[in-house]
Design brief:
Blueprint: H1 2-7, E1 20-23, H2 26-35, E2 43-47, E3 52-56, E4 63-76, H3 82-109, E5 124-130, E6 134-142, E7 145-146
Parallel strand pairs: 1-2
Antiparallel strand pairs: 2-4, 3-4, 4-6, 4-7, 5-6
Length: 158
């Protein structure tokens, strides 16, 4: 995601003008967005959370771990300007779709561990106001992997 923020012209993350951030919760999201200058937008934020499902998708003892990942694309908007809020959401959605297009390309090429990206359903929703009147779009996706569900008697007291 840092590479996306750096190489995608619409974001243009650099060390001098940071526009990519990792956050661990909604409080940190609000804090980061409240402290960015207007030069820091649009911003790409990745939510480093541990959330997902473990399931047997084919009913064949083929267990998969499907963690959920979330990223936000946000833009600062002047307070009370509804038209700019809606414009920011559309712009952020377009940027997010460009990131998803790259992820899909990487999945097809087998790059960057995205081979098992679950592209059949990637929900998104608009967010805002958050931080200092920021608006944008939140995207979530899953990249499945095998789940280590092996029972080992050595792990247990008998």
């Amino acid at each position: 995601m840092r590479d996306c923020a750096t190489r995608l012209k619409a974001i243009g993350h650099t060390e001098q003008t940071p526009k990519f951030f990792r956050i661990s919760g909604i409080t940190q999201l609000d804090e980061v967005l409240g402290n960015l200058s207007d030069m820091g937008f649009p911003a790409l934020l990745v939510h480093d959370n541990t959330e997902g499902v473990v399931a047997d998708r084919s009913m064949s003892d083929n267990y998969l771990d499907s963690p959920y990942y979330v990223f936000y694309v946000v833009e600062h908007v002047e307070y009370g300007n509804y038209e700019k809020q809606e414009e920011a959401k559309e712009t952020c959605k377009a940027i997010g779709l460009k990131i998803l297009a790259r992820m899909l390309r990487d999945k097809k090429r087998g790059n960057l561990g995205l081979t098992f990206l679950q592209f059949s359903n990637i929900p998104y929703q608009s967010i805002g106001p958050i931080g200092d009147n920021c608006h944008g779009v939140m995207f979530s996706f899953s990249v499945s992997d095998t789940a280590n569900l092996l029972y080992d008697t050595n792990d247990w007291d008998m």
